Amino acid sequence: MIIVQNLNKSFDGRQVLCDINVEFLNGQTNLIIGQSGSGKTVLMNNIVGLLQPEAGHILYDGRDITVMSKKERTLLRREMGMLFQGSALFDSMTVLDNVMFPLDMFSTMNYKERKKRAQFCLDRVNMLEAQDKFPNELSGGMQKRTAIARAIAMEPHYLFCDEPNSGLDPKTSIVIDKLISDITHENNITTVVNTHDMNSVIGIGENILFIDNGRKAWQGSNKDVLTSDNKQLNDFIFASEFSKQLRQDIIANMQ
Amino acid sequence: MIRKRLQTLGEYLILMGRTFQRPERMRMFFKKYYQEVMNLGINSIGIVLLISLFIGAVICIQIKLNIQSIWMPTWTSGYTTREIMLLEFSSAIMCLILAGKVGSNIASEIGTMRITQQIDALEIMGVNSASHIILPKIAALVSFVPILVTFSVAAGIAGAYCTAYFAHIITPTDLTLGLQHSFTPWFFWMGVIKSLFFAFIIASVSSYYGYNVKGGSIEVGKASTTAVVSCSILILFSDIFLTQLLST
């Protein structure tokens, strides 16, 4: 479980995150949603330690990353896996080498064991056949799947996904969402997904945090989203006339 | 202006502090080191040989046709060609050329890694990204540059022989006499020592500019240009001090 307490962050005097308090639960797909520029990515970068908050605490199962020494933080990071918006695969390495990289760096396995583990992870995301290809030979969805395989190679306790569906078609997005959700439940890990894809919200959002202008505006599950009377949330999720009508129909059917 | 320069220097020193730390896995370090030797060193041999060959030939022609006169010894052209190649061209000028080729390569490669979040990915994994990316580049270039200096000297002399055998501007005997006249082995080592410093400047300064890129592809291009300009200026300045230091 990850607990964020009273988190504040500003850039050049502009407050980007204001007093964020939230719990990301173990074995669940936790979503951070909000408009572009609302502070989602800044929040995630603070949580993983790429940015240092001005105030507040971030507890990883009781361990506060904001007060850790560099060495302790490095060790904690080895328990994390992260899927970046642009996949962030290493251009000079094949798909297999990318997935083997964290194992090469930190595991005590021999070469055969490392390769077997990497191939298992690639098989899990249906990328085994492309193991000898380079990232520039892959489609966006394949790159994302490879990045997921790399993120889970070290069997992380915490998985972070920054905009996993950006640039992907709806069908591929659903595949990626399902993969993230399945991996979370199979391995009982704490997954935090940063997204503004509404299919993800409805499909995999077990614990959703809605941020508006750097403040926590709402928290609940995907079931609560449909019935919430939070105006900011409804304006964000059901932005189009079609989706507004759809929501009204669903509520009417429920009654 | 001065404050900005001092800040840049401070950032550079901090980055070097992070770079010169024991690699997490020596096996991975040597793997990267080998790749960088191939990329930065072996791939530079061609351009070094080509430029040195022509410059060696041109120096020989220039000295013979435009400087050497009847009252000078016949070995003057060969002697001057050798000294220029050993003392300046194969170390300083060749490193200026390498600053353009290798420096821009390093800055743009690391800059692209930065903007595509590959460096962030390393940090999240708990890898010291500076040490993992920059240290093999510095080690590879510094260890390979003496070979490039040697190749450059040899190619320059081969170029001079080309003017003797193919253009008949100087006789091979006079050229050989000049090349062997008053040879001081220290001049070769001076070039090698200078090139070690220049190689460090090229690899570390270019890495600094690439590592600190913020933004997109335009900033990567700017970082690449800034890296080449900064390396060139630093090489020229340090050349003065090193030459003075090593010649006394």
Describe the structure.
The complex is a heterodimer of chains A (255) and B (248). Chain A has helices at residues 40-48, 70-77, 95-106, 111-124, 140-152, 170-187, 198-204, 222-227, 231-237, 241-254; strands spanning 2-11, 14-24, 29-33, 55-60, 63-64, 80-83, 158-162, 190-195, 207-212, 215-220. Chain A has 255 residues and is of the alpha/beta class. In chain A, helix 3 packs across helix 4 (111-124), helix 4 (111-124) crosses helix 5 and helix 5 (140-152) runs parallel beside helix 6. With 248 residues, chain B is mainly alpha-helical. Chain B has one domain. Chain B contains 8 helices and no strands. The two termini of chain B are 35 Å apart. Chains A and B meet through helix 2 and helix 3 of A and helix 2 and helix 4 of B.
What general outline of chain B do the C-alpha atoms trace? elongated
Unreliable stretches of chain B (pLDDT < 50, length at least 5) are none
- Please give the domain count of chain A: 1
Strand content of chain A: 15-25%
CATH third-tier fold name of chain A: Rossmann fold
Q: Could you provide a short overview of the structure?
A:
Chain A has about 260 residues and is of the alpha/beta class.
Write the layout of secondary structure elements.
The complex is a heterodimer of chains A (255) and B (248).
Chain A: E1 2-11, E2 14-24, E3 29-33, H1 40-48, E4 55-60, E5 63-64, H2 70-77, E6 80-83, H3 95-106, H4 111-124, H5 140-152, E7 158-162, H6 170-187, E8 190-195, H7 198-204, E9 207-212, E10 215-220, H8 222-227, H9 231-237, H10 241-254
Parallel strand pairs in A: 3-8, 3-9, 6-7, 7-8
Antiparallel strand pairs in A: 1-2, 1-4, 4-5, 9-10
Helix pairs in contact in A: 3-4, 3-5, 4-5, 5-6, 6-7
Chain B: H1 2-19, H2 26-67, H3 76-115, H4 118-125, H5 129-165, H6 172-180, H7 185-211, H8 217-247
Helix pairs in contact in B: 1-5, 2-3, 2-5, 3-5, 3-6, 3-7, 3-8, 5-7, 7-8
